[in-house]
Predict the 3D structure of the following.
Amino acid sequence: MAPDRDQGGAMTMDRATDLNCDLGEGEPWEKTRALLAAVTSANIACGGHAGDASSMRAIVRECRGHGTRIGAHPGHTGAFGRVPVAITAEGLERLLEVQVGTLRGIAGEEGTGLSHVKLHGALYHQADAVRALGEATLRFVARSVPGAVVYAPPAGWMARLGPDLGVDVWSEGFLDRGYRDDGTLVPRSEAGAMVAGVPAVRERVREWLETGEVRAVSGRRLRLPARTWCLHGDTPEAVAMLAAAREMFGGGA
């Protein structure tokens, strides 16, 4: 859940905010380690758009050393998982069983388990927009990773269906991505898709802590009830941005 408002409208930190990052996507190992030192949750690519058994195991071990939450980050194969691919609810559950199941097995061998699931790229947006896909994701998690949290946009199908299906859904905000007026992300192919530099990230966090809102690229203010915040590992200055955000959030969850 997001922090509560005080009587003046600002946000009060009733508990620290989770910071997450997508990892195991081909970044250099030293960068992976630096990012893990700054986040509280790791979304580990598990063989779809990126990642293999070796990278999964190495990151799981590093997460255990940092006390970082271990999450699965499944996605479409091809085009780094950022291009939508037609998929049925049954096909999505098979994809999740293979990818999440692989990481779950490796984590178990390392004496730990999965705390959360976050879909990657196009699949993240498809499951948010199409009820059958959102429901399939939640049913899979409830059945195969009981107790795990799902990271998802605040107002989509997964956030709406989670309570009915017994899955805790954490609404997610993005530190390094631009928002459109409807609350969706600006496509990476368009101007304003990325938030550039540490000062811009600090301003986003400051404004959200004070108001519970972020600004769309148009300047419009958007209410964003985020419980977890993502910054992508391939964003320039990602390590410094995450360190700045963690400091402002009070150390992370």
Summary: The two ends are 12 Å apart (CA to CA). The chain has eight helices and eleven strands. Confidence is low (pLDDT under 50) at residues 1-15. The chain has one domain: 4-248.
